[in-house]
Amino acid sequence: MIDKINKYLNDIDNFQSNDPEEIEAFRIKYLGKKGLLNDILREFKNVPNEEKPQIGKKINELKTKAQEKVNALKSSVKSSAGKKIQDVTRPSYPLEHGSLHPITLARKDIIEIFTRLGFTISEGPEIEDDWHNFSALNFPDEHPARDMQDTFFIQRDPDVLLRTHTSSAQVRVMEKTEPPIRTISPGRVFRNEAISARAHCIFHQVEGLYIDENVSFADLKQTLLYFAKEMFGKKTEIRFRPSFFPFTEPSAEMDVSCTLCGGEGCKICKYTGFLEILGCGMVDPNVLESSGIDSTKYTGFAFGMGIERIAQLKFNVNDLRLYFENDMRFLEQFKSKL
Ligand code: DAH
To answer: Which residues lie below 8 Å from residue 300, measured CB to CB, with a gap of 6+?
Structure first.
């Protein structure tokens, strides 16, 4: 009888399963009413008295072992339920984190510098009317200056168009704000141009406007000098060249000393030592009057710059199309600039 019990003990040790039905069958086989344990207990009655303590102990061992085995198997089925087998040796997925787009980075920098000088941020609509994009900015009807900006028209007569510059936003600000006005308007603009390394039909500008009593060209120069040094470094120098815009008089274009060679002359600045970055000037009195501002009391300056151009100089981007192509190899390079 001892041998039989030992065999059962051994079988219990060797039994393995994670199938609930098999485990239940195992329980019935050993512990059920007609199970092996009860068979053994029946036989136990006939065991001679002197052997009873030793065999009784063995039977107890059998009972506990069977019970424990059933419990252990059941709980391991429960805890692995719903879990997929995982390969813990598999390397984890590399976690890629994104980056801000270079245009966003440059825009943030520009906004940050001008807000430090007390400029507010204002925005106008991308779909504009002729008045805000042209007429109020002193572009006479049928004037060739309108052709300089290849306009996308949405509707003719009355004209509805995609704004060709963010100068339209300055008109909207002047219409509803009493001077003093100090504001910049970043935004997207549209021109019907063939896409190349140097031109795109969608790009970004930041317009600046400062109107108060006694604002002079000296204020314009000092403001833009501060901007240039903050944006491109303390050693940056600026220079103004006379230019023409219908909405400013006098008008100028501003250059900064070459961000690559520092003014020595190189391929980037075409050996001139300078790079053009923006247009500016004193707001034409006609523009002030069109928007309801008294030009005998107030003067002001305005400027407009392309964000792509600023980002190009800051990050050495040599092809405008890169900004729009969503090529990861390009975008990835701006991760550290967050
Ligand atoms: N709107 C001009 C452009 O798109 C840029 C500009 C020039 C804006 C002179 C100004 C300015 O405010 O004063 O080319």
So the answer is: 179, 181, 209, 210, 211, 212, 215, 282, 283, 288
| Whether residue 109 is found in the same domain as residue 229 | yes
**pTM, two decimal places:** 0.73
249 belongs to a structural domain: yes
Task: For residue 304, give the ligand 1 atom closest to its CA.
Answer: 8
Q: Pinpoint the alpha helices (H) of the chain.
A: 2-14, 20-31, 36-44, 52-80, 102-116, 130-133, 167-176, 217-232, 285-290, 307-315, 328-331
Regarding whether 134 and 48 lie in a shared domain, the answer is no
Q: Which residues sit opposite 253 in a β-bridge?
A: 241, 279
Pocket test residue of 114, 122, 164, 167 for ligand 1, highest count of atoms within 8 A of CB: 167
CB distance 39 to 66 below 8 Å: no
Of 165, 203, 299, which is best to mutate to test ligand 1, by the most ligand atoms within 8 angstroms of its C-beta? Answer: 165
Q: Which domain holds residue 307?
A: 102-337
Residue 212 falls within a domain, yes or no? yes
pLDDT one-digit tens code per residue, 289-335: 999 999 999 999 999 999 999 999 999 888 889 999 999 999 999 98
At residue 272, the pLDDT reads 93
CATH number at residue 111: 3.30.930.10
Same domain for 181 and 58? no
Report helix angle 102-116 to 217-232, nearest 10: 130
Q: Which atom belonging to ligand 1 lies closest to the Cα atom of 208?
A: 12
Q: Supply the residue whose CA is at minimum distance from atom 13 of ligand 1.
A: 280
The answer to the question of residue 94 being in a domain is: no
- pLDDT value of residue 84: 65
How confident is the model over 209-266, as pLDDT tens digits? 999 999 999 999 999 999 999 999 999 999 999 999 999 999 999 999 998 888 898 8
**How close is the Cα of 167 to the center of ligand 1, in Å?**
6
Q: Which amino acid is residue 31, in one-letter code?
A: L
**Number of Cβ atoms within 10 Å of the Cβ of 16:** 10
Six-digit token string for 187 = 């935004």
